[in-house]
């Protein structure tokens, strides 16, 4: 890994990864809505379309929306970890490794979220989520030790 700190670009990348399933959702939803969607209450479109489009398409849309929302929910702690790690002057190698691992976990999580169709496989997705969220928590812990603790 480079000695350059890629914390800021990794935040942008994490946000972009979260937008990707939303883009998929939006394109597929518009293609299937046949004028039944509304920009006035866009977050209600999925509910409105239930029963109006095929169950298979609706479930795909719901998974894409869920993947997007989950990515946006995880973004603040990841961004905080990247910025706090930089503030604490954690080694760039450590910050970059954490960023690459987090982004990789988010790619895998999104693929699983959008692709999983069985209850058993959904637990694999949950395990990947736990792994992904543990990374910024660990980074915050390490930064806290440097800033206020014994390291």
From TrEMBL:
Cell compartment(s), UniProt: Membrane
Key words, A-Z: Membrane, Transmembrane, Transmembrane helix
Xref: Pfam families: MAPEG
GO cellular component: a single term: membrane
Membrane-spanning ranges: 6-27
Predominant localisation class: membrane
Protein name: Uncharacterized protein
Species of the source: Penicillium antarcticum
């Amino acid at each position: 890994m480079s000695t350059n700190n890629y914390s800021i670009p990794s935040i942008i990348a994490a946000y972009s990864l979260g937008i990707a399933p939303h883009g998929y959702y939006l394109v597929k939803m518009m293609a299937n809505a046949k004028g039944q969607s509304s920009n006035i209450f866009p977050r209600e479109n999925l509910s409105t379309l239930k029963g109006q489009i095929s169950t298979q398409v609706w479930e795909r849309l719901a998974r894409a929306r869920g993947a997007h929302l989950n990515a946006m929910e995880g973004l603040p702690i990841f961004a905080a970890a990247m910025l706090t790690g930089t503030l604490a002057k954690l080694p760039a190698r450590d910050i970059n490794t954490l960023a690459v691992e987090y982004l990789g976990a988010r790619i895998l999580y999104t693929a699983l979220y959008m692709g999983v169709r069985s209850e058993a496989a959904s637990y694999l997705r949950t395990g990947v989520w736990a792994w992904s969220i543990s990374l910024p928590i660990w980074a915050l812990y390490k930064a806290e030790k440097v800033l206020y603790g014994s390291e």
